[in-house]
Design brief:
The protein has 3 domains: about 160 residues, P-loop containing nucleotide triphosphate hydrolases (Rossmann fold), CATH 3.40.50.300; about 90 residues, Helicase, Ruva Protein, domain 3; about 55 residues. The N and C termini lie far apart (about 50 Å). About 15% of the residues have low confidence. About 55% of the residues lie in helices and about 10% in strands. The chain has a 5-stranded parallel beta sheet with strand order 2-3-4-1-5, with helices on both faces. It is α/β, with parallel strands linked by helices.
């Protein structure tokens, strides 16, 4: 809507992952170096974590865009799967047809494929995004697959990418065997205030801005960082809203006052308040004086848990719409598993509230 008004070639703050717009902060550069190192040196597991919206998926796409035809990659982005569904997803990514095979046959099919490609001097990589949602039994399958190796080299390289909860999962005693195979672990931290400014200007340049500094005044950067916490996805949302406001007011750029107006439209609070238990950006705040204040404060901790439940419900919708190649019985079983997860989540919420 505002692209022509600001002399841009495309929208600079799209939320969808786009490797062309990736800003390589110090943390993103290091995470990518670890993934490159693991693949080039046939060095087992790498675990990359980061907050929601930190740019993990975009970083994966950047990595994939740089591979040549000597690297074979299976990418798994839907992780609410059973062991058999996971094996199916991996085999399909490698170009095989596993749907008439049982679990043992699929394991044999995959092992044969990996060994044959290794003998052809191929690098074979399995990248799993949103890995914090993996069932522990699926993680055990991954551990077993990673055990394929020669006397000196791994045959399959695994990169697990996920939210911070993934680290907590891997540190649990029942996953010690898997954790021992992890060669490198790295957390992508939020952008600093200086990096936030560089990020905003970088995306504007990629979108075709001749003078990025003219679109966002210098004194807006600290405010952007204050309300986004340096999380790229939140920066995108705030900056896109601010440019829309500037366009609506027929302004040449965004100053501090206009940015504050955009924040009011989004009904955001500073990021540190959100992390301390305040409302999430994008949530409509409860009007002052509405309800019992102490009760409201006591329930703020529930918001991220409810987000988790909402995500599970979205997964159910995806399954019902997309998994037409799986039998009705399997689909029903998978939905039942998700419902069980929701039930357990609600029980934890109730126990914590009662405590």
């Amino acid at each position: 809507m505002y692209i022509e008004h600001f002399g841009l070639k495309e929208a600079p703050f799209k939320i969808t992952p786009d490797a062309d717009f990736l800003y390589m902060s110090a943390a993103h550069t290091r995470a990518k170096a670890y993934m490159d190192y693991s693949i080039r040196n046939r060095d087992g597991f790498v675990v990359i974590t980061g907050e929601v919206g930190a740019g993990k998926t975009t970083l994966i796409r950047k990595l994939l865009s740089e591979f040549d035809d000597t690297v074979l990659v299976a990418k798994v982005f839907q992780t609410q799967l059973t062991e058999s569904e996971f094996l199916q997803a991996v085999l399909v990514e490698f170009g095989l047809n596993p749907f008439s095979a049982g679990k043992v046959e699929m394991m044999d099919m995959l092992s044969t494929f990996l060994i044959e490609r290794f003998l052809e001097r191929k690098q074979i990589v399995l990248i799993i995004d949103e890995a914090q949602n993996l069932d522990r039994r699926v993680l055990e399958e991954i551990r077993m697959l990673s055990g394929l190796e020669t006397a000196k080299q791994k045959i399959l390289h695994v990169i697990l990418v996920g939210q911070p909860e993934l680290n907590a999962m891997l540190d649990s005693p029942d996953l010690e065997q898997l954790t021992q195979r992890v060669r490198l672990r790295f957390h992508i931290a939020a952008l600093s205030e200086e990096e936030t400014g560089d990020y905003v200007r970088h995306r504007l340049r990629v979108a075709g801005a001749l003078d990025p500094e003219a679109l966002f005044a210098a004194d807006t950067i600290s405010v952007i960082h204050e309300y986004s916490g340096g999380i790229p996805r939140l920066i995108n949302t705030l900056c896109d809203t601010a440019l829309t406001c500037a366009f609506a007011d027929d302004r040449a750029g965004v100053d501090a006052d206009l940015l504050r107006a955009a924040i009011e439209e989004l009904q955001w609070v500073p990021f540190r308040v959100r992390r301390a238990g305040g409302p999430d950006p994008g949530r409509t705040p409860v009007p002052a004086g509405a309800g019992n204040g102490a009760a409201e404060n006591g329930l703020r901790w529930m918001e991220p848990k409810l987000d988790s439940i909402e995500a599970l419900l979205r997964d159910m919708t995806v399954i019902l719409k997309q998994r037409h190649h799986i039998s009705l019985r399997v689909g029903q079983e998978h939905v039942a598993q998700i419902l069980q997860q929701i039930t357990r989540e609600m029980e934890r919420l109730q126990a914590r509230q009662d405590g």
